[in-house]
Design goal:
Blueprint (H helix, E strand, L loop, with lengths): L2 H22 L3 H21 L3 H35 L3
Helix pairs in contact: 1-2, 2-3
Length: 89
């Protein structure tokens, strides 16, 4: 077994652990952070499996854009909920 194969297997184990953590996390902000880590690990896995184009797409979408959209959505929902509690609309 080569070093690349060992790294690929180790990254798949880490991906499995991160995916499990993402499912078990209930707080949306923490979940966005875990999803970002999962995206980074998946990008690493794709790079190790010699798919650099897929790795770059994964890095851009799953590690950056999706968590950012989740965080912005949570922020907006919380702001609307705070305004409703104060009776402003």
């Amino acid at each position: 077994m080569t070093a690349t194969e060992l790294l690929a297997e180790a990254s798949l184990v880490l991906v499995t652990a991160a995916a499990t953590a993402a499912v078990r996390t209930r707080d949306p902000v923490r979940q966005a952070v875990v999803l970002s880590a999962l995206g980074l690990l998946l990008a690493l896995s794709f790079a190790l499996l010699q798919a650099p184009d897929v790795a770059l797409s994964q890095l851009a979408v799953a590690a950056v854009v999706t968590p950012l959209l989740i965080l912005l959505t949570v922020r907006k929902i919380r702001a609307v909920a705070d305004r409703r509690e104060k009776g402003e609309g």
